Amino acid sequence: MSRASLDKQPHEVAAMFDDVAAKYDLTNDVLSLGQARLWRKAVARAVDARAGERVLDLAAGTGTSSLPFREAGAYVVPCDFSLGMLREGKKRHPGLPLTAGDATRLPFADGVFDAVTISFGLRNVQDTQGALGEMLRVTRPGGRVVICEFSHPTWQPFRTVYTEYLMRALPPIATSVSSNPDAYVYLAESIRAWPDQPGLAARLRSAGWERPAWRNLTGGVVALHRAYKP
User: Fold this and answer.
1) Is 80 labelled a binding residue?
2) Is the separation of the CB atoms in 108 and 138 below 8 Å?
3) How far is 226 from 188, CA to CA, in rounded Å?
4) What's this model's pTM, rounded to 2 decimal places?
């Protein structure tokens, strides 16, 4: 079994997700205490995909996150660099155009998507700014990006409880439901090291996105950022 380190070497991260692919969606539901499904619905509302639009769903894993966009009538491209995740996704959703790709070197032409979204994947990319720049490149002018990522709870007492859950409770729970519990130790560490809500908004601006704004979900455990291409 493998786990990545916080320097986020791409081959280590890909191998880690290959290991957890079979039980990934189930494990997320358990570890998030059922909130993961609510977060996916919030992402779908924020992207607001319309019939005929093209949506790029990065870090799509098994493709579960892409289904609401297809149901809205958009043409969605689920993209991930874990081949294990993509194989599992192909078994479950054979109709989705699952695509292998690195967020820092996307295999798409300039300006071809109306919206780009990534959920719980940006913090696993070694070059965050490079990925935000690539998302900008493949989005049409006026198009949008939606990022759903773990963040920093806004209420200090809750933040303390949450941090204790991440570092103490999460690994034992993962042991009972995941095929690679060590991977969830990395995930807990990566969440703690991730920038807060204003910090990610600043990174979006630096990459060239305009009007970044965010909405906190579950008290700031997760933040939903949206911005637009000029």
Assistant:
1) yes
2) yes
3) 24
4) 0.83
What is the C-alpha radius of gyration for the chain, rounded to an integer number of angstroms? 16
For residue range 212-226, list pLDDT tens digits in order. Answer: 999 999 999 899 999
Query: Which residues lie below 8 Å from residue 77, measured CB to CB, with a gap of 6+?
Result: 54, 55, 56, 57, 97, 99, 108, 113
- Mind listing the pLDDT tens digit for each residue in 8-46? 455 555 555 555 545 555 445 545 556 888 889 999 999
- For the four alpha carbons of 124, 130, 119 and 166, in that order, the dihedral sign comes to positive
For residue 227, say whether it is annotated as part of any ligand binding site.
no
Phi-psi region of 98 (alpha: psi -120 to 50; beta: other; left: phi over 0): beta
119 labelled as ligand-binding? yes
Residues 6+ positions from 10 with CB-CB distance below 8 Å: 81, 102, 126
127 is in an annotated binding site: no
Cross-strand partners of 62: none
Phi, psi angles (nearest 5°) of residue 70: -65, -40
46 is in an annotated binding site: no
